[in-house]
């Protein structure tokens, strides 16, 4: 069975963050469900050919964010309590990281704040057409 996660050591993103983002994204889209067991630290490290301490750090971060629960002797599982809130938080975390990367890329390419804001507004308008009634309901 192929590993469920992958890492790219050349991406510039720390490997433990790549793992945490992939777990959060998998929870957010329902690929990993509450109560599902994750590979052991040792197994995931072997699958990804990385240091076990890196996987342990990722699991600690996920535990701190209440995405997973770890029980000594049993393993690490996708958190079952508050799974809806956890999934929403996971979605927000993944989107936040994607936005940070996009802003960083735009800045590195010399795009000004105003131009970036205009591009973002156009994207919002494209994917979230103006609908005052639904915006008001979403705000409440």
CATH superfamily: Winged helix-like DNA-binding domain superfamily/Winged helix DNA-binding domain
Largest sheet: 2 strands, antiparallel
Strand order of the largest sheet: 1-2
- Tell me the series of helices and strands, N- to C-terminal: HHHEEHHH
* Tally of discrete structural domains: 1
Number of helices: 6
Class in CATH?
Mainly Alpha
Helix content: 55-70%
Instruction: Assess the beta-strand content as a share of residues.
Output: 5-15%
Distance between the termini: 45 Å
The CATH architecture comes to: Orthogonal Bundle
In short:
A hairpin with a 3-residue loop joins strand 1 (68-71) and strand 2. The chain is mainly α. Helix content is 60%, strand content 6%.
Write out key terms for the chains shown.
6% strand; single chain; 2 strands; 140 residues; 6 helices; Arc Repressor Mutant, subunit A
Architecture overview:
It is a single chain. The protein is mainly α and 140 residues long. The chain has a single domain, classed as Winged helix-like DNA-binding domain superfamily/Winged helix DNA-binding domain (Arc Repressor Mutant, subunit A), CATH 1.10.10.10. The chain is 60% helix and 6% strand. It has a two-stranded antiparallel sheet. Helix 1 packs across helix 3. The longest helix has 26 residues, at 83-108. The radius of gyration is 18 Å and the shape is globular.
């Amino acid at each position: 069975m192929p590993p469920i996660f992958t890492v790219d050591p050349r991406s510039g993103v720390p490997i433990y963050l790549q793992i945490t983002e992939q777990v959060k994204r998998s929870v957010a889209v329902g690929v990993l469900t509450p109560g599902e067991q994750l590979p052991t630290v040792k197994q995931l490290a072997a699958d990804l050919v990385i240091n076990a301490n890196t996987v342990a750090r990722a699991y600690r971060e996920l535990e701190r964010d209440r995405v997973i629960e770890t029980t000594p002797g049993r393993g690490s599982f996708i958190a079952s309590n508050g799974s809806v809130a956890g999934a929403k938080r996971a979605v927000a975390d993944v989107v936040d990281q994607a936005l940070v990367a996009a802003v960083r890329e735009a800045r590195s390419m010399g795009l000004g704040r105003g131009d970036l804001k205009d591009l973002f507004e156009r994207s919002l308008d494209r994917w979230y057409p103006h609908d005052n009634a639904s915006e008001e309901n979403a705000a409440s």
